[in-house]
Specification:
- It is a single chain.
- The chain has 180 residues and is mostly beta strands.
- The protein has one helix and 18 strands.
- The strands form three sheets. It has a seven-stranded parallel beta sheet, with no helix packed on it. The chain has a seven-stranded parallel beta sheet with strand order 3-6-9-12-14-16-18. Strands 1-4-7-10 form a four-stranded parallel beta sheet, with no helix packed on it.
- The chain is globular, with a radius of gyration of 15 Å.
- The N and C termini lie far apart (34 Å).
Length: 180
């Protein structure tokens, strides 16, 4: 990707210096604003990160230990039963790509969002649903499940892509459920 000058989408901005760790029952809602993270992101236990009409800008490239199937480092990691929900939001990273990993029973719901500089990795028993969004890449392994509906994904990889479903809008609620 060509390096582009980044301009924040929102006047309202929050800057977080250092790693951002959400654990236990923590919930971080970023809404109608730009959140600038100078570190890496770890969401674990039952914690939840919600991006609603928001922008997450990850400035500094540091990394967590790689998972056993991935030959590179993860810049944002969701473990245990952690959740990412993104609605009409974006993640921006100044280099070519930001790797976001979902492990154990973690979940992601990405709707109407721009993740064109983000590669999503699903492993173990994670569940990922992407609707009407743009994603740079998607990797699925082991028992992870992923559903992509009305979205553009630049690349799909992984040793066990058998769990990837590309479905039309009429089946959206079969995967995630009616009451999200």
């Amino acid at each position: 990707l060509i390096e582009l000058e980044w301009t924040p989408r929102f006047e309202r901005q929050t800057v977080h210096d250092g790693d951002l760790i959400l654990k236990g029952d923590d919930v971080l809602l970023i809404e109608n604003s730009t959140y600038i993270l100078n570190g890496v992101l770890l969401v674990r236990d039952r914690a939840k990160l919600i991006l609603r009409n928001a922008e997450l800008y990850v400035q500094e490239k540091t990394s967590w230990t790689p998972a056993d199937l991935l030959p590179f480092f993860i810049h944002a990691m969701f473990n245990n039963s952690a959740t990412l929900e993104a609605y009409n939001s974006s993640i921006y990273y100044p280099s070519s790509r930001l790797d976001v990993g979902f492990f154990q029973n973690s979940r992601a719901l990405i709707e109407s969002s721009d993740f064109t500089r983000t590669v999503i990795w699903g492993d173990e028993e994670s569940t990922i649903k992407i609707c009407n969004s743009n994603i740079r890449g998607l990797g699925i392994a082991r028992d992870a499940q992923c559903e992509v509906i009305g979205s553009e994904v630049l690349s799909i990889s992984g040793p066990f892509v058998r769990t990837l479903y590309l479905l039309g809008p009429e089946r959206q609620n079969q995967f995630w459920g009616e009451g999200r």
